[in-house]
Amino acid sequence: MRQKHDEGEAMPARMKKADLPTRTCLACGRPFAWRKKWERDWAMVKYCSERCRRSRRAAR
Ligand SMILES: [Zn+2]
Q: Separation of 13 CA from ligand 1 center, angstroms?
């Protein structure tokens, strides 16, 4: 006898990513959010990942 019933268990709020700035990747066109590893050169970041960055260059 087990009732499936939500008892309103409080889910712990994880990271808030609402405050993070976002940008659109120039390679794949998808939005991506700020990452810790970019904190120093966020102004120069234009691609969501290293892969996109390279693929962009590779495409003549
Ligand atoms: Zn991308």
A: 28
The rounded Å distance from CA 55 to ligand 1 centre is 9
Q: What is the pLDDT of residues 5-43, one digit of tens each?
A: 666 667 666 656 568 999 999 999 999 999 999 999 999
Enumerate the H helices of 1-60 as residue ranges: 50-58
User: Rounded to the nearest whole angstrom, what is the distance from the C-alpha of residue 10 to the centroid of ligand 1?
Assistant: 35
* pTM exceeding 0.85: no
The span from the CA of 32 to the CA of 1, in Å, is 46
